[in-house]
Design brief:
five-stranded antiparallel sheet; alpha/beta; 397 residues; globular; homodimer; eight-stranded parallel sheet; TIM Barrel; Urease, subunit C, domain 1; 13 helices
């Protein structure tokens, strides 16, 4: 089971030939330097750029309306309106979380994303139905797509009696992490909400991933509480904050102090480079302080947001643009956030383009990584364990 | 010379048949209601959405490096560095403004943009060479692409002796408007710079379009000076401010007062929804006050910015995202900014989808305008005076 893919470009801009054996990279050598293996299948890489798989560190598999009738959005501006609308409309619009999760997984694979952390709504109106559907979809694509699931109390945790019990059931059923949402702004009780999240995490020995949209000093206050709880419960390295918009809206000195705190507590950040907030967290500031930052698509054409295609190269571009990146090396950093850093968050084994790792990768027609990120969406070929599993935007089931 | 295109969707979501005659819309009727015309050529619109031509109200035809070797950007963060780099590097990298303008015009046409306002650099290092090249390209595509040119003192007007004389030559040579750049931050003499711009405009009886990147109160001060000069010189309705970032960074009451001033002076705004600034001007605030707002792609893969494809639907999406638009009606507004409002700025005659207007339009595969904007780039067919001039991303020369 050997395959040689010759003439591909790696991140350093140099042409290489790859020998794949038993689903792994057996050898990676500059073009022309690979030992001849006449029995192997040969494939011409035609100079394409070879990238490691994209990783979507923040998704909502149970929300997407991909392929469904267009949702005519005429909602008001409040977060609470969007939360209530979705909770109450799921059944009305016929949103089947298993079918929809499958669509987004296939779309992701077709774009070269092979691993994802997805939040899944847990609420008293829909119970565990979203999670049950997503768990089924996860199982179906297990061979080529790694999915980590966060039990997400979208409608509130302590503010909606009955939700904590559902969260417990969700964790028993197969959710991998405890989620949370704006402990102050949405759940209306920062100490109570964070306490409940960490108590679930400790009891079930799970990591934590909290949506934090809270702006300015409110977000900063919540962030401090979360860092304290992280250290107190010994969960350093297992807590993630998603969005963390407050870091973008505080003055630099204050943001720096919070960043140090995140670093001390081993808290990781996911960002989507959202365009609708005044500023997103500075990726460089976080990375320089040793905080891991990962990219996520967040909403993909759902009742929250009409935007989103599921493409993590497009997401890398948006994160780069919002961080004011223009230089080649900065665009490379934006892609790293959507590949390696996500793999680190998900603790993927055998990830990356080096010998003995799993031969998971994508081939795109681009001059170099900077050009790939700056130009955005384009066709690509996707390989899992050396096998072509998607091309021309289609998952080859 | 009759053609019937049946089964297209207009903005109201209803299916129509169109009769085209002598390059104009002769009749637009709900599907099945058109009088039979057996001699006409028939074409099935297959339910595609029909849009008026896109208008790019702020471009730089002489800067793009589309189709050239990738420009490895390792420039520092300052505006002045980017200005100096480009001025000095144009010849070194072999940037031929006629060839490059042609490429961006063809790219624009292929995306359904049929009218554009482009700034063209005028400076003491490159003289009028950029303008000469762009004028030649404009002439070549005159039949299907309308181009308005702004003589743009990118490197400074009053701060670089010899530039005013070049601007005069540029206006005699065929430039349609007088440009300017950050009278305070770049030209270092707000009163002098604005005075020189308006004196050129009055002398040559031309409109004005000034790049205004200046933030906060500095930008507000410059904006006030420009409004005063506009009224004093009787140029109401003929002055445009491009970017106007300060409107996004001031508190609401101050931004409202400036917006009123813009409205009184008949000043129009172009915006690109740039992702790298904390906030862009609020499109709705401006439109509600009666200020015309138009969209522009600005830089397309040049020495300034690695981003940009030339697609004004993608631009509408970015403007929508940065304005926090999620509702269908808001997404429709974003498209209007990139179509009708631009046509108003350029005073295009016979523009729009109604009888007796020129049969210029595009067909895209989309459920509705909101979906088209939210999903972004996609294939389209482009028609000029009833004739197919581009499809599948290719200009049919």
């Amino acid at each position: 089971m050997e395959k040689i893919i010759y003439n591909v470009t790696l991140a350093d801009g140099i042409r290489y030939d790859l020998l794949l054996r038993n689903g792994q990279f057996a050898a990676i050598a500059k073009t022309g330097k690979l030992e001849n293996s006449s029995t192997a299948e040969h494939m011409d890489g035609t100079g394409c750029l070879l990238l490691p798989p994209l990783v979507d560190a923040h998704a909502h598999l149970d929300k997407t309306m991909l392929g469904m009738k267009w949702f005519h959005n005429n909602l008001g501006p409040l977060l609470s309106e969007r939360i209530a609308n979705e909770r109450e409309s799921r059944r009305k619009v016929g949103l089947d979380s298993c079918i929809q999760a499958g669509k987004l997984i296939e779309r992701s694979i077709s774009m070269g994303t092979l691993a994802m952390r997805s939040h899944v709504d847990i609420d008293t109106a829909n119970g565990l139905s979203c999670l049950e559907g997503v768990l089924e979809a996860r199982e179906r694509y297990r061979d080529c797509f790694y999915t980590e699931l966060v039990a997400f109390p979208q409608s509130g945790l302590v503010s909606r009696p009955g939700t904590i019990e559902l969260m417990e059931e969700a964790l028993r059923l197969g959710a991998d992490l405890v989620g949370g949402i704006d402990p102050a702004a949405v759940d209306r009780d920062p100490k109570g909400s964070i306490g409940a999240i960490f108590s679930l995490a400790e009891h079930f020995d799970k990591g934590v991933d909290i949506h934090l949209h809270e702006p300015g000093e409110l977000g900063a206050f919540t962030m401090e509480l979360i860092a304290d709880h992280t250290i107190a419960s010994g969960l350093q390295g297992r807590v993630t904050l998603s969005h963390a918009f407050c870091l973008g809206s505080l003055e630099e000195r204050r943001a720096n102090a919070l960043t140090e705190l995140l670093s001390d507590a081993g808290i990781q950040i996911t960002t989507g480079g959202q365009a609708y907030v005044p500023a997103v967290p500075s990726v460089k500031q976080l990375l320089n302080a040793g905080v891991n930052v990962c990219g996520g698509n967040d909403n993909v054409r759902d009742m929250w947001s009409p935007y989103g295609t599921g493409d993590m190269i497009e997401r890398a571009q948006l994160i780069a643009m919002r961080n004011g990146f223009r230089r080649d090396e900065d665009l490379e950093l934006a892609l790293k956030i959507c590949t390696e850093n996500g793999a680190k968050l998900l603790q993927l084994e055998g990830y990356g383009i080096s010998e003995d790792n799993s031969a998971d990768f994508l081939l795109v027609r681009a001059d170099n990584i900077a050009e790939c990120v700056a130009a955005g969406p384009r066709e690509r070929q996707v390989f899992k364990a050396g096998v072509l599993i998607a091309e021309n935007g289609k998952y080859l089931s």
